Amino acid sequence: MKSVFTKVLQLGVVVKDLDQTMKIYADKYGIGPWAVYEFNKDTVVDMSMGGKRIDYAMRLALADIGGVQWELIEPLDEISDYARFLKEHGEGIHHVALDTESYESALEFCKKNGLSSVQYGYWGRNFHYDYRDTRDDMKCIVELYGPEESFKWPEPVAVYPNLVQVKIK
User: What burial class does residue 84 get, using C-beta atoms within 10 Å of its C-beta: 0-12 exposed, 13-18 middle, 19+ buried?
Assistant: First the structure.
């Protein structure tokens, strides 16, 4: 059988305090730099949870570790799946983003196999992110990416440590 997923893109870690956690990763382990972004109703459109339209907010930071993007996520409300995860499990790995042949074929696979959407958004009007409930089968949530060809990484709201160049995949 051909694999639905082609490679690991990202590990998403939910944290209580983004700034403190970035500092530990960078200052203690040498991991970084971290590009910080804010996701909220002004930066992400068509947010939904469980297939229902709802606005939520979080701060996140991205860094590359050996070709895999790490994402630290601090929920800024009690609404998002990140907030639910933090309340139920504490800090830790929330999801794994996996690459596929195409975003569209991955969505077809999810529909065919009954993998419901946990949380979804459309960042910057040209980057889909979609968390699918694979917890029963894969023991984790899987995130699917859907950047359009026109997607370009926006300038982060902050960088830690404040280095000149930030590499984001």
Answer: middle
Q: Say what the pLDDT of residue 99 is.
A: 92
Q: How far is CA 94 from the centre of its chain?
A: 9
For 23, the token pair is: 């500092």
Q: What is the pTM of this model?
A: 0.91
- Nearest one of 33, 69, 34 to 169, comparing CA atoms: 69
E-only strand ranges, the chain? 5-14, 34-39, 44-49, 52-53, 58-65, 68-75, 92-100, 117-123, 127-132, 141-147, 158-160
Q: How far is CA 116 from CA 65, 99, 113, 137, in A?
A: 29, 18, 9, 13
Mean pLDDT by 10 residues, the chain (169 residues): 90 97 96 95 90 94 95 97 96 96 91 94 88 95 89 91 56
pLDDT at 125: 76
Residue 152: what pLDDT? 87
The number of residues making up the chain comes to: 169
What residue spans of the chain are helical by DSSP H?
Answer: 18-23, 29, 81-89, 103-112, 135-138
47 vs 80: CA distance, rounded Å: 10
Q: Tokens at residue 49, please?
A: 């949870």
Q: How far apart (Å, rounded) are the C-alpha atoms in residues 16 and 67?
A: 25
